[in-house]
């Protein structure tokens, strides 16, 4: 299985696990029979809501099995990210992801700087001392991010999961 396929599978498994989690949170987990129920209070009156055909033990088992699969697959993905080299063995995939994250933070800071200049010099933006330089730096950071993401995406399709 390629890394990208594993990432897609991880997303699907996580969403399935979460579906079980949400339904278990929504229903009364104290009942363990086939006719799950919970009490709903409405104007000092207690109504019993019945969920026919739901087996809470089966729901829990399915959730737990999916959680285990998610954990195992996530561990394999992390192992692959840290052991797979990019750039002729210079950096691991995870290091590239960290670099992308840092560049995204740098980009946000530069864009915030551009916004601050624009607010300070509202009517005279062209006279702001560093607005053009900050904007160019932000755009260059975006180019760097795009390049790294493209390399990461290419490698994700090539790399086999370990």
Structure described in brief:
By secondary structure, this protein is an alpha+beta fold. It contains 4 helices and 4 strands; from the N terminus they run αββαββαα. A hairpin with a 2-residue loop joins strand 1 and strand 2.
Descriptive account of the structure:
The protein has helices spanning 3-26, 56-83, 93-120, 131-158, and strands at 35-42, 45-52, 85-86, 91-92. 67% of the residues lie in helices and 12% in strands. Helix 1 (3-26) packs antiparallel against helix 2 (56-83) and helix 3 packs antiparallel against helix 4. Mean pLDDT is 80; it is low at 31-37 and 43-48. It has 2 domains: 1-83; 86-162. The chain starts with a helix and ends with a helix. By secondary structure, the chain is an alpha+beta fold. The strands form 2 sheets. The chain has a two-stranded antiparallel sheet with strand order 1-2. A two-stranded antiparallel sheet has the order 3-4. It contains 4 helices and 4 strands, in the order H-E-E-H-E-E-H-H.
